[in-house]
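Teaching note: in complex prediction, the entire set of molecules is handled at once rather than each chain in isolation. The prompt given to students was simply: 'Predict the structure of this complex.' The entities are:
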Amino acid sequence: MVRWQPGARERLQAAALERFAAEGFDGTTVAEIAATAGLTERTFFRHFADKREVLFAGQDEFERLFVAGIEDADGTDPIAVVAAALEGATGFFPEDRRAWSRARQEVIDADPGLQERELLKLSKLAGAMTDALRRRGIDPTPAALAAESGVAVFRVGFATWIAEGEERPLPVILRAVLGELRSLLA
Amino acid sequence: MVRWQPGARERLQAAALERFAAEGFDGTTVAEIAATAGLTERTFFRHFADKREVLFAGQDEFERLFVAGIEDADGTDPIAVVAAALEGATGFFPEDRRAWSRARQEVIDADPGLQERELLKLSKLAGAMTDALRRRGIDPTPAALAAESGVAVFRVGFATWIAEGEERPLPVILRAVLGELRSLLA
DNA sequence: ACTACTGATGACAGCGACTGACATCGCGGC
DNA sequence: GCCGCGATGTCAGTCGCTGTCATCAGTAGT
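The expected output is the structure of the full assembly:
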């Protein structure tokens, strides 16, 4: 007889996404999520810093992929390095997570508080990329601009990938968006 | 005998910035802010949607300036239009608000929750700029990229303007940053 | 002058997010 | 077989935030 079932964290995440999709973020209490997962509210807050964070766990892993992509890239042109990192990070979003990503994004797009959290995560990502670029000897301002541009390209590309009817894989889309940005500022 | 002193909103904003700077955002309760301003907690929430918003009132005006700058600009090149809007919006930050802006930014930089709110405001700004560009007949993706780039330039430029030792006025800095972005992607 | 109405505020009760402190108990190590 | 660890439960409490109703100076209409 086990005292508690394993996978509490994953159960909480699944329960949260399900409830948020059905009742909305504000219409769901943490106690409800916990009960759905067979746990208590207090345990929820032991796994996630706050109610929003349950939708953003794993984001650190994503950030590490980006930074690793920058560190492993060749050359010294900031934009080229960022482009390489974009390629590497797409591994985080395989084709079979497209539907799940869409469902999650719909929940986020429906709540300003969740949008704030997403923006903070992306901002931290840009900061981590900036640091990684500077470690390669790139000057502060170009590093920040390249990182911000990279994140902007990722955002636009990701939204496109999620969109209804879109069938191109994420890496292809990202290359196209980066090309558009380049020609825009040429 | 007046029933209540005028300027409640401004008193609350001043009290909030003062307390946040002294005790930190988390270390300050809304009731304390209200008491400092000679009001009650309930009245605070009649003036501001939430505790964070007291630092971001006036942001709508800022957004309108940007959009107006886009609408009044000449030409069809997205980046040129955005550059013109950047010029116009600097009127929101005259030289004598530099010290105040720095104090406010220090408070924001010290709290993740406030950073989230700032990012949401900037994101909304980018969205409004995108819409304004599209109304000028610019295609969606170039419009979004130009708007995001414009906001990125503003962020980097504003941070520079605020920085210790910096003396150039904001418009000059913004032109320089935009030039850097251009040469970066050339 | 009397009355009705408005508009900013106060008072109060209540919900939900989040936290700290302490108890519980299966499991693995010794 | 005992002991400590670690994930969980329980409970009380703070604070952000909201709905509701009362208050009362000033204003407009009669």
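Point out the following to students. Residues 1-4, 29-31, 41-42, 45, 49-51 of chain B lie near DNA strand D (CB under 10 Å from a C1'). Chain B has two domains: 8-51, 58-184.
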